[in-house]
Specification:
By secondary structure, the protein is α/β, with parallel strands linked by helices. It contains 15 helices and 15 strands. It folds into two domains: 161 residues, Phosphoglycerate kinase, N-terminal domain (Rossmann fold, 3-Layer(aba) Sandwich); 196 residues, 3-Layer(aba) Sandwich (Rossmann fold), CATH 3.40.50. A six-stranded parallel beta sheet has the order 3-4-2-1-5-6. Strand 7, helix 8 and strand 8 form a beta-alpha-beta unit. Helix 11 runs parallel beside helix 12. The chain starts with 15 loop residues before the first strand and ends with a helix. The model has no long low-confidence stretch (mean pLDDT 93).
């Protein structure tokens, strides 16, 4: 079996170490960092390197910018400020990922210093895993460390491409994710429940298809549930719904029909005609949604059913909130799932930025769950048994 190449025993003093972190953090309306969980999760690796005299060069993506028209709000300036507060020392943010100006700054770094490169997705070569772009980034460093489990399922230039040009190692966060979740691949307590919500509908539908023969029960919420309701023939008003995925959703439900109550979508939902913290809401059976109604949470009956399944599960994997949990009128579904996950005797694995933000918002600590993963899609793909390109690249 292949083993991770870890940092233990690697001499880093005076060396330029390029570290792929996952600083894809949520931003508030003013563009400030709204949650620092992922920044804090990177500290063990960065501290280890800096304390041993490495010159640490951090890189990460932020959001989904268009490389042809990158927006200022997705520059890494605010991320650098937020991380500097946690780090306790200045962190210089550079305006590019490669080039003469960046190399000059890096060459002048002192041992133990930390800099942060610009948003890697501002450059088309990142998502394309362009070899030339990867080589240009690699020229900044002597070693590469991948500590971004949340992007390990993507073969991008900053996660995989650079490993063709630099000795590559796993950071402590990525190492811990793999070590904690690997035993679950062959010894998952049953029944296995997959609780899935959120708004990233297209990616979640793909994961659902892959888990069809693995999970015993699916619990569906969030914008994802709206697509399945629409595919089932229900009206969804003006709700978030990916209508072009209707046929795929129908295929999944047809496949699940062979298993009694295996695939659960809400039988009732919370609706409003406006999205606000003071919105008037109704809890309606799904067949009564119409007009300008927006489905923004699962209803009370759905909550009761989902909680019952969670409390009787052997393992629950949760990715994505049940509704627009940031606003109190639409928070009950997600809040109830977090509460049930914290109380069940089942093995509980949860991940994804919104899910982590939700449990913190509702007052839960990470210690209440078996494992809280910094990755959402990466977590699901790993537990499904897929080889993650970013992990494969730092294995013997």
């Amino acid at each position: 079996m292949k083993n991770l190449r870890t940092l233990e025993g690697i001499e880093v003093k005076g060396k330029r170490v390029l570290v792929r972190v996952d600083f894809n953090v949520p931003l508030d309306k003013e563009g400030k960092v709204a949650d620092t969980t992922r920044l804090e999760a990177s500290l063990p690796t960065i501290s280890y390197l800096a304390q041993r005299g490495a010159r640490v060069i951090l890189m990460s993506h932020l959001g989904r910018p268009d490389p042809d028209n990158p927006k200022d709000k997705l520059k890494k300036d605010e991320v650098a400020k937020a991380f500097a507060e946690i780090w306790g020392s200045p962190v210089r943010k550079l305006d590019h990922c490669h080039g003469a100006d960046v190399r000059k700054v890096v060459d002048e770094m002192k041992d133990g210093e930390v800099v942060l490169l610009e948003n890697t997705r501002f450059f088309a070569g990142e998502k394309n895993n362009d070899s030339e772009f990867a080589e240009e980034i690699s020229q900044l460093a002597d070693l590469f460390v991948n500590d971004a489990f949340g992007t390990a399922h993507r073969a991008h230039a900053s996660t995989v491409g650079v490993t063709k040009f630099l000795p590559a190692y796993a950071g402590f966060l990525l190492q811990r994710e793999i070590e904690v979740m690997t035993p679950l691949l062959n010894n998952t307590p049953k029944p296995l429940v997959l609780l899935v919500g959120g708004a990233k509908i297209d990616t979640k539908i793909g994961i659902l298809k892959k888990f069809m023969d693995i999970a015993d029960t699916f619990l569906i919420g969030g914008g994802l549930a709206n697509t399945f309701l629409f595919a089932s023939g229900f009206g969804v008003g003006e709700s978030l719904c990916q209508e072009d995925m209707m046929e795929v959703a129908q295929e999944i439900m047809l496949e699940a029909e062979a298993h009694h109550e295996k695939f659960l979508i809400p039988q009732d939902v919370v609706v409003a005609s406006e999205i606000s913290a003071t919105a008037a809401t109704l809890d309606l059976p799904v067949e009564d949604v119409e007009g300008d109604m927006k489905i923004l949470d699962i209803g009370k009956l759905a909550i009761e059913k989902y909680v019952d399944v969670i409390m009787n599960a052997g393992t629950v994997i949760w990715n994505g909130p049940m509704g627009l949990y940031e606003l109190s009128p639409f928070a009950e579904g997600t809040k109830a799932m977090a509460e049930a996950m914290s109380k069940t005797d089942a093995t509980t694995i949860l991940g994804g930025g919104d899910t982590i933000d939700a449990i913190k918002r509702f007052g839960h600590s990470f210690d209440e769950f078996t494992h809280v993963s910094t990755g959402g899609g990466a977590m699901l793909e790993f537990l499904e048994g897929n080889v993650l390109p970013g992990v494969e690249a730092v294995m013997d």
